[in-house]
Amino acid sequence: MNTPIYAALLGSSLLVVQNILMLNVGLLRTRIGQGAGVDGNVTLERRVRRHGNLAENAAIFIAVLTLYELLLGQTPIAFWTAVVFAIARLLHIAGFTNEAGSHLIAADGTKKLFLLMRGGGAGLSALASLLLGVAVAYAVVSG
Questions:
Q1: Is 17:54 a contact under the CB 8 Å cutoff?
Q2: Could you tell me the residue range of the domain that residue 26 belongs to?
Q3: Rounded to whole angstroms, what are the CA distances from 46 to 18, 73, 98, 133?
Q4: Which of 21, 46, 66, 87 could be cross-linked to 51 through a Cys-Cys bond (beta carbons 3.0 to 4.6 Å apart)?
Q5: Domain count, the chain
Q6: Backbone CA torsion sign across 81, 87, 88, 89
Q7: Distance, CA of 107 to CA of 98 (rounded, Å)
Q8: Cα dist from 137 to 106, 114, 115, whole Å
């Protein structure tokens, strides 16, 4: 059985990022005195979504990447899907650092860059996830 090296590196890196995002939300909640929910605060909502979206996407990707590596080892597919996924998630986070990217507020001129980062990050995440999912399914079915 192979050791899931790429999954371990990606997972540990994303865990650090996830904790930074979590602290970012918690510190804002403390500063503004907001408990659960966002109560119409666009900045808080943006930070919560940035944190939550990474959690939603990273966990299953890391699990499937681990399965892939256990089955097939450290192949170029494992490496490149991990790299693309990491870049995609960072792009998505960057896109959510501005209201143009998160809420389409004043998404004109140079602020379109945030919207492009968000969309590009989501699209690349989907592409890497789809490729990885198909690769694992194929590996299992083909024996």
A1: yes
A2: 5-142
A3: 14, 37, 8, 29
A4: 21
A5: 1
A6: positive
A7: 10
A8: 43, 34, 33
Amino acid identity of 79?
A: F
Two tokens, residue 97: 């650092």
How do residues 87-123 score in pLDDT, each as one tens digit? 999 999 988 887 776 676 776 777 788 888 888 999 9
Residue pair 44/96 in contact (Cβ under 8 Å)? The answer is no
The tokens describing 98, both together, are 């501005």
For residue 117, give Cα distances in angstroms to 38, 88, 95, 142: 24, 9, 5, 37
CATH classification at residue 60:
1.20.120.550
Using the structure block, give the residue that is written with the tokens 């966990």: 59
User: Phi, psi (5° rounding) for residue 3?
Assistant: -90, 130
Q: Three-state SS for 143?
A: coil
Helices (H) and strands (E) in the chain, counts: 5, 0
Most confident of 14-18, 32-36, 91-95: 14-18
